[in-house]
Specification:
It is built from three helices and ten strands; from the N terminus they run ββαββαβαβββββ. The chain is α+β, with helices and mostly antiparallel strands. The longest helix is centred in the first third of the chain and has 18 residues. The chain starts with 5 loop residues before the first strand and ends with a strand.
Length: 171
């Protein structure tokens, strides 16, 4: 493929040669969130996160989307195609990139109040920044803390002390 050539990889992937002035990953992520949110919302889905992986000139741009009724493969495909067209016009990512649109899955980290709302009353695994781990049912949260009911009683955990919190899959 020559410069500017585009190739569709798989159902939710897209490869592109592009040039952009956005070199800072946090700035790029912020710009991508702003760019892709309306497209995701047009598909009655919620943008969960934008992940940037790989080297700056060969990145994977992973768009994580959610819908309470579930995200199907055809949803990922439609969003990916629309974003691919938008990225061709807006050219937001420097260098080569692969675009992936996917559901975050059952073990995704809980980072936002919306994530916590969906996880309310579910059993969580909370890994602390200090290295400890807590398990318990999510009973509440605010801007500073989450509250869980553990086997030994209620516990409040400062959100800034949480390295990762996920819903424990119950089989």
């Amino acid at each position: 493929m020559g410069p500017g050539a585009r190739a569709f990889f798989g159902v939710c992937g897209y490869l592109s040669d592009t040039v952009s002035t956005l070199d800072d990953r946090s700035g790029l992520k912020s710009a991508l969130v702003t760019l892709v949110s309306p497209v995701v919302e047009d598909h009655d889905a919620e943008l969960v996160d934008v992940e940037l992986r790989g080297s700056p000139n060969n990145q994977t741009v992973r768009i994580l989307v959610h819908r309470d009724s579930g995200i199907m493969l055809n949803d990922c495909e439609a969003i990916s195609r629309e974003l691919g067209d938008l990225f061709d016009v807006e050219d937001p990512v420097p260098g080569r990139y692969r675009l992936e649109v996917t559901s975050p899955g059952l073990d995704r980290p809980l980072t936002t109040d919306r994530d916590l709302e969906r996880a309310h009353s579910k059993r969580l695994k909370v890994v602390l920044s200090s290295g400890g781990t807590r398990f318990g049912k999510l009973t509440g949260w605010n801007a500073e803390n989450i509250a869980i009911e553990t086997d030994t009683g209620p516990e409040e955990i400062a959100r800034d002390h949480i390295a990762r919190a996920t819903v424990e899959v119950e089989l």
